[in-house]
Amino acid sequence: MSRTYHIVTFGCQMNERDSETIAGMLEEMGYEYCPDFKAADVCVLNTCSVREHADKRFFGVLGQLKNPHEQDPGRIVCVCGCMMQQQVHIDTLKAKYPWVDIVFGTHNIADFPRMFRNAAEEHQKITEVWKDAGPIAEGLPAKREYPFKAFVSIMQGCNNFCTYCIVPYTRGRERSRAPEAVLAEIEGLAASGCREIMLLGQNVNSYAGVCGEDGCDRFGIAPGQKVTFPQLLRRIDCIDGIERVRFMTSHPKDLSDDLVQCFADLKHLCKQIHLPVQAGSDRVLKEMNRHYDSAHYLELIRKLRAACPEIAISTDIIVGFPGETEEDFQATVDLVEKVRYDSAFTFIYSVRKGTPAEKMPDQVPEEIKHQRFDRLLEVIHRIQEEKSAEYQDAVLPVLVEGFSKTDPNVLTGRTESNKTVDFTVRAPEGAEAGCNSAAACAEALIGQIIPVKIVKAQTFSLYGEAELQ
Ligand code: 5AD
Ligand code: SF4
Asked: What's the pTM value of the predicted model, to 2 decimals?
């Protein structure tokens, strides 16, 4: 009987991408995916430390495993990710969950197979966390969720030290992958049928990949040449088969005119950008160490919309940063009203140990943070509802991802602006389109980009109908 694994991933797309690598490694070692984390022979928990909520959820899930070796001495529990880059969490694990077999960090994922074999074959308990990051490892396996869309990491780490954020301490300094490695990976994905890629990095705008000694004739990159993010995008746009390119995340201080121009010029770049603003008050932005003010941010929005009028814009906003006054909060609401986001992720400020904001005076009381959060959400949702209504009756290209989890007669996919659309398909008369039932016709659409007419546009969801040709 084959041995099985399950990975529980907390946090952002970077962690999801790392989990794909770990899954790829486990499959190369002969393990098969098991949907139930409590039943799998190998359980990996990939942690996030960006907010306290994620810490708590991790300990909640870990607790559910109880003492896994009592039921099966061969089971292996691994914990990795951002939380493990902080000694305090390793100490808690050792004290309260001594049965965890392998602990590793964000910088030594490439070494996971070796650690795993030692734990599995020699029953060793292993804790290996590197303080500093080495060069980015290339050529690692990956088990991706979909064959038709993929995450491609282009850089790791962050140099920005926003005063509330733990990421620069857990993911280290910025390192960019070599451009030819990124482009070769995307070419490989395209050759295997991938249509959409999401380029990942904490701040993709400061990508600065350097080509290796051999250069890369195919993409016109000279040996040792430095490639900027817009230059990388322009080359990706020429790769046959890739129809949609997205990226996240962008820091407003590094969004260049050259990148704005890409939205006007590039055929496959989706008309969509995630541009975290974090706050609308210039005083708070300064305290956050964001290196821009609200006027600069609004000017970027103006430029983006001038280059690409249909662009969908989303953002991240933190409510209740230390010292935030009612006036500061109102400035955030005003900025939201001016920008009119298609969607926004709002977060209640969460104190992170070791960050400069932890020591700032005037922490905002929980009750006020929650009140402001609710008020902001109301504004965001009202605008979102108005913007969503603009999609009513539009026919939009949708990349079909699969059947809806709640209704097997409904397909689900994503628009260019990355909105989810649930839709039904009308099978052709007599079902002569190479498939012999409505379900088979629908199944054949998965992975394709097809036109879908939006028949019901709601605040958080779009419903549509597609007609088969
Ligand atoms: N508290 C609340 N939100 C935070 N974020 C990062 N650190 C914190 C924190 N300490 C948010 C930021 C970031 C997003 C990924 O998480 O908005 O853009
Ligand atoms: Fe954190 Fe700021 Fe870096 Fe984003 S840019 S990961 S918010 S420090």
From this structure: 0.95
